[in-house]
Amino acid sequence: MSSLWLYCITLLFVTRSSSLNILFVSDGAAGHVTTVYELAKTMKNHNVTFFTQQLAKSYVNFETSATFHVIYSNDSTEAAINEKKLEQELIGVYVNYSFIDSIFYSTPSALPYVIQFLNKTIDILMKQRFDVIVINGLLMWGPILCDAIKTPCVIQSPVSIPNILNLNLPNYFSLLTPTDMTKATSRLFNAIFTFRLAFSSFFKSLPLFYKVFHALPRVPGPFYHSFTLKNLLLLKSKNLHLISMPSTFYVSTIEDPYTKYLGAFIDETEVNLTDDDLTHWLQSKKMNSVIFAAFGSTSLIPHDRMLSLIIGIATFLIEVPDSSILLALRNVNYDTYESVLKTIDNDQIRYIFDSVERVKVERGFVPQKWILQQHSVKIFLSHCGMGSIMEAFYYEKTVLCMPFNMDQFSNAVTVVYRGVGLSLFVPNLSPLESLITPYDYRHYAFTSRDVQEKLSKLWLIAIYQQAVKQLSVEMKHAGGVKKAVELIEFFVEMNGTFDHFIPFEATLPFYQRYLLDLFVIFVLLPGMIILFVLVKYCQRQSKQKIE
């Protein structure tokens, strides 16, 4: 018996000693924290600490993860309320300004929360040692802190955005596609647009940079020099980047050893849901008979778009008798829906939306991942946030995009270009207007006919389903969260460096890579010598003739 106990204790010690202490860091926004949480859940053999804002509790149920040690940036009872108020304030900014301008207008309001989050991150790192830190890509200070304490850093991002300064690639905000970049006019516009955006952003960011720079902490210890201007400008940290969307989603780019495409970060563990009216309704439907409509946590649907949406959906449901729709409307969107529905006099439309068998309207939170898993769902009508469309593609659902702000417009254009869905948004600015107000598409419009026709195309034309199935296969083949766990463990074992995986050619200086040194020595210098000799010879011949 004693030998058995000794064996068990030894086994327990070995298991614990081989596990890693991992810190996961993410802000509390829905589209950011959910993906990092999916990855953290898979780290079952390691000691996980999850640091976030209390806002995250609106979107993630941490109580189901008993093995997690969750830390919040602010433990006060008012923190969740204040963070929610800030979220609503930022929504208002993004509704009223272009995406580029809204970044500058929203930063002063968000800055105190950002600095508080940063200070708490430093406090955690001062008190505890971690083997690796996994951080959301939006939190740009992560690599700086990891470099200061010499800890491997893993950055999770939904997509690898092409280098905005590479003029051979379509600018992310220009909404140009790779096909457009084969035309001379588009290449010219891309270059002008990039310079216009760069200069405009530079001058707007100068006063903001001064304010942010002076708000950054100077804490005694290993982080004291982390946020000096010299360190911010010269630091070249090497971090492992884990990307969820295929690198070809926007435009195919060359990946380095520190950038790994792993597919969607989705934990496929079966979700245990309450047996309620929603689950009964959805599970009673036939295969590929339901449209699921959800618009994220921050989108506000204007009255005119809601009207077009309701009439277009109703027209489609009337034309396709076997179809149904699950409509998830949060907060003020539900109030807008009710007020618009009351103004519609068409009895047929009102009858459709009063039919609980055809239309199911959910006012609060819905389990989006579980819904997209269901075989009864065929089309996902979405705001086209990156997290939402990743889940849709992973579960082989075609997407009809209705974007509102931020990256959603670019995502919508790419969804159409890749053939995995359609969009109610069509770029409505001329090249000149796009240069004057870059990436400002807030006021686009669509008709009820657009809604009905595009739903019908996705419903009837098989090529969209084939394209999204191919994308799903690509994402699942990449490995997802399971592969991410293995890669993080491997990265730590390699002491946080993949330098020896870098191709030799990429390690060469610019002049060696393009043989400029050999060109100078064996072509340019001999050429100059020969030219010099010829000139001297010609001068001598000319002089002799004169004499």
From TrEMBL:
The keyword Secreted appears for this protein: no
Keyword Membrane recorded: yes
Domain of life where this protein originates: Eukaryota
Xref: Gene3D superfamilies: Glycogen Phosphorylase B
Keywords from the named record: Glycosyltransferase, Membrane, Signal, Transferase, Transmembrane, Transmembrane helix
Matches recorded under InterPro entries: UDP-glycosyltransferase, UDP_glucos_trans
Gene Ontology molecular functions: UDP-glycosyltransferase activity
Signal peptide from the UniProt entry: 1-19
Pfam families (alphabetical): UDPGT
Residue intervals passing through the bilayer: 514-535
Protein family (similarity comment): Belongs to the UDP-glycosyltransferase family.
Identification of the protein by name: UDP-glucuronosyltransferase
The organism's taxonomic lineage, starting at the top: Eukaryota, Metazoa, Spiralia, Gnathifera, Rotifera
